[in-house]
Write a structure and sequence with these properties.
This protein is an alpha/beta fold. It has 23 helices and 30 strands. Residues 104-110 and 259-272 have low confidence and may be disordered. Pfam families: CbiJ (PF02571), Methyltransf_31 (PF13847), TP_methylase (PF00590).
C-alpha cells in the first residue's frame, strides 16, 4: 500500500501533505497541537493525528497502518523528536526521509551575535540595555527570567495557543510584554513590532526561509536593532522539498511525472515541474554576478557547469557535477530526479556565444521547465574598461571555431573577438601580420574582473612577442576599413598573375553572379588557375569556405600569393586533379568549373553524388565542352538552366584614338540540382 506518514511541524510539512493529497496519495499527518491541525489541508485521502507521541507510540503507529515511508518535517530544533521518529522508522523497516528547511540566502550583516543556546543568549543580554524581542518560542522563555527587569525589558512573541499563553503568564510575561501571534511574519510586521516596542535586540533561531528568518533580519536592520542568533543544531543529512517529491516518485508513491505538475493553489502553495535554470555568472568574478543569478544559485538543489564556473561558485556548498558537454549534463540530471531545481552555470551572457543556445532546446525536449538568467558579457565589461562604445563593432568568437576574422577586420572599424587557447593572442597577431594588417590597433583583456585582470594595448607586431593568458578577449580597431569595396568585380591587374590563365573580370563578374552565393556557402573552384574566381567567391562568402583545386604547381603558388594579398583565410588550396582531389572535401553547396582537363563528366557526377541540390557554373570556350555540359544538364534532374555566350571588347589606345579589341567569346552554363541537401 502506498501510504505516507508525515510528522508536520513546519510549513514545508503542511505543503507536502497538501501536495500528496492533491495527487490522491493516502497520507497520515501528525501534528503536536490542535492549532497545528487547523492549518492542515482537508481531503478524502488525508488523515490528521493530533498530540505529542513518544518513540513507543510512534512505533505502534507505524506498525499498525502499513506505511511505505516516513517523512520527518518537524522543526529544525526538535532534535529529540526527530531522533524518536528516525528510531521508530528503523525498527519498523520503513524508509525515513528528513525534510530540510530551506536555508536563507545572503549575509547576516555586521550587527549580529551568534550564541549556542537561548540560555547563552540570556547571559549575553544581561550585559546590555534596551528592550528585547524574544521570538524563540514559549518553551524556553524561562531562560529570559534571569535578565534583570525582564518583565519590562523582554517582549515575548509566542503562538496564540492556550498552552503557550498559560506557560508565558506563569513566568511573568503579561500585558503588552506578551505578543500572541502565528508566524511567519512579513518584514513590515516585524518592523512595526520592533518600532512600537522600541526593540534594541532581537533574539531568533535560524529558522530558515520558510520560518521568516530573512524577514526578521531585514526588519531588524531597518529598525536599527542588533540580532542575537541562536545557532541552529548541526543538521542531519536530509532532502529538500523538491528532492522528497522526486524520491516519492521514484518509489512509485507519486505517479510518474506527478512531481512536475502544478500543485493545488490552496493556502497560496504552488509546485512547479522539474526546472533547469540557465544562469550567466558574468565575466567570472562573483562580484560581477547579478542578484538574480545569486538568488538562482541560492535556491537551486544542485549546480552543473564547467570546472571554472563551479570554482567561482565553490562557497555554495551544493551538490554539483563538472561538465560542459550537453549529453553528460543531461544524463547526470536524469540520473538524479531528487534534484528538482538544477542551475546550469555559464560564463558571460547566455545570448553571446554561449552553450545555452544548444542546451536549452535539449532540456525542453526532456520536459524541463527552462528559465534563463542573463549576465554581463566580457564584451560589455571590456568596452566599459576601455571607455568605448560597442554598438558599432563586429562581434566574433574564434574560440574553438572558424570565423573569417581577417575579412571582418578589413571591413569594420571595430572588431571584438573572444579568443581561446594558450596561444590565442599570438596566433591572432601572426594572422593579422600575414595578411598585411600590421597597422591595426589592438587592446587585449586578460582574466577580466578577476584580481589578476590585465589590459594591454599595441600593434600586432608589438604584442606578438608577449605572453598572454588563455582567458583573453580583444578589440581590434582598423581606421582604414571605411574604404573597403563590398561588390565583386576586381580588376585583373589587382591579381598576381604570372603566366597562368585567368578568368577575366567581365566573365568573372557574370559567373560569380550566376553562382548565387550566400555568406556561408561551401564552394569548389575546379581548375582555379591564379585564383581570381576563388578570391572573389571567398570575399563574398566570408563565413563560408572556398576550396581551390589546381594541378599546376606554378598556379598553386600564385594562389597562395593571392590568398595572402586579398586576405582570405577561408580559401583553402587543394593541389591535385579533379575529380580525385574532390573526394575527401566537405560537401559543397556551389561549384565553379573553369577548367576540367577533359574530366567534366566525372567531375559533375561526383558533385551531384555529394550534393544532389548543388548549384554549378561552368565556363567553356570550345563548343564540344558546351555540348557536354548541355548533355549533363539533361542527364541530371536540374532546374534554372541557363546558357549564355559572353563576348567582351576592351578599348585599346592607338595614338589619339580608342579602338575596341574583341576577346574570345566564353560560354557560361549554369544549373541547379532539384534535390537539396
Amino acid at each position: 500500500m502506498n501510504k505516507v506518514l508525515i510528522f508536520a511541524g513546519t510549513t514545508e510539512g503542511r505543503r507536502l501533505a497538501e501536495r500528496l493529497s492533491g495527487a490522491s496519495v493516502q497520507t497520515a499527518v501528525c501534528v503536536a497541537t490542535e492549532y497545528g491541525e487547523t492549518l492542515l489541508p482537508r481531503g478524502e485521502t488525508i488523515t490528521h493525528l493530533t498530540g505529542r507521541l513518544d518513540e513507543k507510540q510512534m512505533e505502534s503507529l507505524m506498525a499498525a497502518d502499513g506505511f511505505s515511508c516516513v517523512v520527518d518535517a518537524t522543526h529544525p530544533y526538535a532534535v529529540e523528536v526527530s531522533a524518536n521518529i528516525r528510531g521508530a522508522a528503523e525498527k519498523n523497516g520503513l524508509s525515513y526521509f528528513r525534510l530540510l528547511r530551506e536555508e536563507t540566502a545572503g549575509e547576516y550583516g555586521g550587527n549580529t551575535v551568534f550564541v549556542d543556546s537561548v540560555k547563552a543568549a540570556a547571559e549575553y543580554l544581561k550585559k546590555t540595555t534596551g528592550n528585547i524581542l524574544a521570538s524563540t518560542g514559549s518553551k524556553e522563555l524561562k531562560e529570559y527570567t534571569e535578565i534583570k527587569d525582564y518583565r519590562k525589558r523582554v517582549f515575548a512573541r509566542v503562538l496564540s495557543t492556550e498552552e503557550s499563553v498559560s506557560a508565558s503568564r506563569r513566568l511573568g510575561f503579561e500585558g503588552r510584554n506578551l505578543i500572541c501571534m502565528q508566524g511567519p511574519f512579513s518584514e513590515e510586521m516585524n518592523y512595526a513590532i520592533m518600532k512600537e516596542y522600541d526593540i534594541r535586540y532581537l533574539v531568533t533561531k535560524s529558522s530558515g526561509k520558510a520560518g521568516g528568518f530573512e524577514e526578521k533580519l531585514r526588519a531588524a536592520e531597518h529598525a536599527g536593532a542588533a540580532v542575537v542568533i541562536v545557532g541552529r543544531p548541526e543538521e542531519r543529512q536530509g532532502y529538500s522539498y523538491e528532492q522528497i517529491l522526486g524520491l516519492l516518485e521514484k518509489m512509485e508513491i507519486l505517479p510518474s511525472g506527478a512531481a512536475e505538475e502544478d500543485a493545488p493553489a490552496e493556502h497560496g502553495l504552488q509546485m512547479k515541474r522539474r526546472e533547469a535554470v540557465l544562469v550567466s555568472i558574468g565575466t567570472g568574478a562573483v562580484s560581477q554576478m547579478t542578484d538574480a543569478a545569486k538568488n538562482a544559485f541560492d535556491k537551486c538543489d544542485a549546480v552543473v557547469g564547467a570546472e571554472r564556473m563551479l570554482q567561482a561558485l565553490g562557497t555554495l556548498q551544493k551538490p554539483s557535477f563538472v561538465s560542459y558537454k550537453n549529453e553528460e549534463m543531461i544524463s547526470w540530471m536524469e540520473e538524479h530526479p531528487e534534484y528538482r531545481n538544477i542551475a546550469v552555470a555559464f560564463s558571460g551572457d547566455l545570448g553571446f556565444y554561449s552553450g545555452a543556445k544548444k542546451l536549452q532546446p535539449l532540456l525542453e525536449e526532456k520536459g524541463y521547465l527552462v528559465r534563463c538568467i542573463p549576465g554581463m558579457s566580457s564584451l560589455i565589461y571590456f568596452a566599459a574598461k576601455l571607455g568605448i562604445s560597442w554598438d558599432d563593432a563586429k562581434l566574433m568568437s574564434i574560440h574553438g571555431r572558424f570565423e573569417n576574422l581577417i575579412q571582418s577586420v578589413r571591413e569594420n572599424r571595430k572588431v571584438f573577438a573572444l579568443l581561446g587557447g594558450k596561444d590565442g593572442v599570438g596566433e591572432l597577431c601572426k594572422e593579422l601580420l600575414h595578411y598585411g594588417l600590421s597597422d591595426v590597433r589592438l587592446a587585449v583583456g586578460e582574466k577580466l574582473s578577476y584580481k589578476e585582470e590585465r589590459i594591454r594595448r599595441g600593434t600586432p607586431e608589438t604584442l606578438l612577442s608577449e605572453d598572454f593568458h588563455s582567458l583573453a578577449v580583444a578589440f581590434i580597431e582598423n581606421p582604414m576599413a571605411a574604404g573597403h569595396v563590398v561588390t565583386h568585380g576586381l580588376e585583373d591587374d589587382a591579381f598576381i598573375r604570372g603566366k597562368v590563365p585567368m578568368t577575366k573580370c567581365e566573365i568573372r563578374a557574370v559567373s560569380v553572379s550566376r553562382m548565387r552565393l550566400c555568406r556561408d556557402s561551401v564552394i569548389y573552384d575546379v581548375g582555379a588557375g591564379t585564383g581570381s574566381v576563388s578570391v572573389e567567391a571567398a570575399l563574398q562568402a566570408g563565413n563560408g569556405r572556398v576550396y581551390a583545386i589546381e594541378k599546376n604547381p606554378e598556379a598553386a603558388a600564385l594562389l597562395r600569393e593571392n590568398k595572402r594579398k586579398f586576405g582570405v583565410p577561408n580559401l583553402e588550396i587543394i593541389e591535385g586533379e579533379a575529380p580525385e582531389a574532390l573526394e575527401t572535401l566537405p560537401v559543397p553547396t556551389h561549384a565553379f568549373i573553369g577548367g576540367s582537363s577533359g574530366n567534366l563528366k566525372p567531375i559533375v557526377e561526383l558533385l551531384f553524388r555529394k550534393n544532389p541540390g548543388i548549384r554549378i557554373v561552368i565556363n567553356a570556350i570550345a563548343l564540344e565542352t558546351v555540348a557536354e555540359a548541355v548533355s549533363l544538364m539533361k542527364t541530371y534532374d536540374t532546374e534554372d538552366g541557363e546558357i549564355s555566350q559572353v563576348m567582351v571588347s576592351r578599348a585599346k589606345k592607338l595614338g589619339e584614338h580608342q579602338l575596341m579589341m574583341g576577346q574570345n567569346p566564353v560560354y557560361i552554363v549554369s544549373f541547379t540540382g532539384k534535390e537539396e541537401i
